[in-house]
Amino acid sequence: MAKNIITTVYGPDIPGIIKELAECTREWGGEWLACKVIKLDGQFAAIMSVVVEMQNEEKLQSQLHKKFRDLTFIYSPAQFEAAKKVKTINLLVDCIDRPGLTADLTNIIANLGITMENMDCKRFEMDGIGETVFSAKLALSVDQTVDSETIAGEIETLSEDARVQVQ
What we know:
It is a single chain. The chain is an alpha+beta fold. It folds into 2 domains: about 1-75, 2-Layer Sandwich (Alpha-Beta Plaits), CATH 3.30.70; about 85-165, Alpha-Beta Plaits. It contains 4 helices and 8 strands. The strands form 2 sheets. A 4-stranded antiparallel beta sheet has the order 2-3-1-4. Strands 6-7-5-8 form a 4-stranded antiparallel beta sheet, with helices on one face. A hairpin with a 4-residue loop joins strand 6 (about 115-125) and strand 7 (about 130-145). The radius of gyration is 20 Å and the shape is flat.
């Protein structure tokens, strides 16, 4: 019988590491259903939904730990929610940076009961205005009936200069 586990792995970004992880998983009959990878400043993190036969689960995990000693692995059972009619909306948020901005943004999203699928944020100097700008790309999972412009309007309450584009 197959088991679906969520595997999170992080550590130094070594060329070809994702390919090696996938090959090791296949050696034990495992299959990645989905994977997200992020790399930043010489490090990487990945989260994978892996299906493997129950009798091979411990063997696969043991092999991963032996073969990739510099990486950290975390395993948890996959939890499936009842199928809901959802859609993903993508937003681009730009405004002048300030302390607590990321926390305020995530609080607005949480208070709206929205699931954040992905957030990629950056801060950078804008020579023309002499300020640091905050920019975030958001992927949000919402009920089919939710209007993306309404969510954009709520996020624009972050500050006077906040601009949100629905993509």
